[in-house]
Design goal:
The structure is a single chain. This protein is mainly alpha-helical. It folds into two domains: about 1-70; about 75-440, no CATH class. The protein has helices at about 5-20, 25-35, 55-70, 80-100, 105-130, 130-155, 175-195, 200-220, 225-240, 245-260, 265-270, 285-300, 310-315, 330-370, 375-395, 405-445; strands spanning about 160, 165. It has a two-stranded antiparallel ribbon. The chain is globular and about 90 Å long.
């Protein structure tokens, strides 16, 4: 058995055991498994005979560890954050639309099983990652995952490319080029937070993560990610705290220069097709319009949805082109509407709105109520950009059932709870300081000025 296989097995079992005492270890392990997905790696193949469901085992240990350490976790008085309530509503609508839809299929079971796991993990994560230290660990983890995916893209063999686009890197949610590029764009704002730190080794790791991640994005040659990245880059100048605006402009300029330097003709040949006329538009882009027209007809016939996982089965009946049968919706919102109905679309959009509103409220709160708001301001900024990337890219590719997207949707709940803990910690320190000053004033009257 390869040494890397043995090392991974030791890491996996060690993390699963220690998660029972420190749930954050389980959160880290689960996110690592999501990005690495050992089942598709060369060093994971020798472990197949064990039949281990890595994410299931890790998630189970995380759930047990969270329950065992419930009294130590600082998630506040509310068991469910408003964002978590919205996620629960979305999941219940998924179940209802599937039960009331056209039929029940293997795809229905697959996606419901996946989304149950997704919502359970994000619920646990939002009760564990709730302090400044845990949020910083999350930032470092996102940076390391960017570095890993970028490195895997750099050493990918020619067989990993399909029509000059990189496929087959990382977990199932981003094994296609567009999914990988979108996810990397969503991770880069957190890499930028790490790069701002003073420690040299963190700066170096963040620099290489950004460089490798940007190179991987270019190798994907995904138009949806390119558009989402441009929109997020422009809005970054608006949403960054004013005192950091010059810094973000410099970072964006360096990123643009690096992207131009690393790009090749294949990349630009594909990107210019975004602006092609109707006559010059390639088949992939043209078919989206036909699919979306068919999706509108599906929604009119089935306002409560056709059921989770059934869009591919029914789209062929609503288009005049037989080649479009069994095709994806290529739009997160259209996929949500056709499969979960109008109630599902309303709940999904409302969930995004609640997440965005939470970040807007936090942006004001940390500026007014924290003595050291820098990290939380940057976390709010990074989370906003990641949501923008997934939302804009979701207009052109389906990301509705993507775990990474829901991770960033629920992340504002983590930041919200962490900010509340930080406010309480600062208030406690201030109270202790006042108490000490009062005692000192009793011993030496007039030695300390009143505060």
């Amino acid at each position: 058995m390869p040494l890397r296989s043995i090392a991974f097995l030791a890491y996996f079992f060690g993390s699963s055991v220690f998660t029972l005492a420190v749930p954050m270890i389980g959160v880290i392990c689960y996110i690592v498994l999501y990005h690495v997905f050992p089942q598709t790696t060369w060093w994971g193949a020798p472990l197949e005979f064990l039949g281990i469901r890595y994410s299931f085992v890790c998630g189970l240990c995380l759930a047990i560890g969270t329950i065992l350490n419930m009294n130590r976790l600082q998630f506040g008085r509310r068991m469910l954050h408003p964002i978590e309530w919205m996620c629960l509503i979305v999941f219940l609508i998924m179940i209802f639309s599937s039960a009331a839809g056209l039929f029940w299929s293997d795809r229905t079971e697959f996606f419901l099983d996946k989304m149950a796991k997704v919502f359970l993990f994000t619920f646990l994560m939002s009760h564990v990652v709730v302090t400044r230290h845990r949020m910083w660990q999350f930032v470092i983890l996102m940076t390391l995952m960017t570095l890993y995916l970028g490195h895997e893209a750099k050493i990918a063999p020619p067989s990993a490319f399909n029509s000059n686009r990189l496929d087959g890197i990382g977990g199932p949610d981003f094994r296609e080029s567009a999914g990988l590029a979108i996810h990397l764009f969503a991770l880069l704002p957190f890499v930028a937070i790490a790069f701002r730190q003073k420690q040299l080794w963190i700066k170096l790791v963040a620099f290489f993560a950004a460089a490798y991640g940007l190179n991987a994005i270019l190798l994907c040659r995904a138009r949806s990610a390119f558009i989402a990245g441009i929109v997020a880059g422009v809005l970054a100048i608006w949403y960054i705290p004013r005192r950091h605006r010059r810094w973000v402009v410099v970072v964006l300029a360096c990123g643009a220069f690096g992207g131009i330097f690393l790009s090749d003709n294949w990349f630009w040949e594909r990107m210019v097709t975004i602006f092609s006329s109707a006559e010059e538009r390639d088949k992939s882009a043209s078919s989206r319009l036909v699919i979306w027209q068919g999706a509108w007809e599906i929604l009119k016939d089935h306002p409560l949805g056709v059921g989770v996982g059934h869009f591919r089965y029914v789209i062929g009946k609503y288009t005049e082109e037989p080649d479009l049968a069994n095709r994806d919706a290529h739009n997160s919102f259209i996929l949500c509407a056709t499969e979960t109905g109008v109630p599902g679309l309303i709940a999904y959009v409302a969930t995004l709105a609640v997440a965005w509103g939470t970040l807007s409220r936090l942006s004001r709160k940390v500026r007014k109520r924290l003595a050291d708001p820098d990290l939380f301001e940057m976390l709010v900024f990074a989370n906003r950009l990641s949501l923008l990337v997934y939302a804009v890219a979701g207009l052109f590719v389906s990301r509705f059932y993507t775990e990474g997207a829901w991770l960033f949707i629920v992340l504002p709940a983590c930041i919200d709870r962490a900010v509340e803990n930080e406010i309480r910690a600062e208030a406690k320190q201030e109270l202790i300081l006042r108490s000490r000053l009062e005692r000192a004033d009793l011993l030496l009257p007039g030695a300390y000025p009143a505060t």
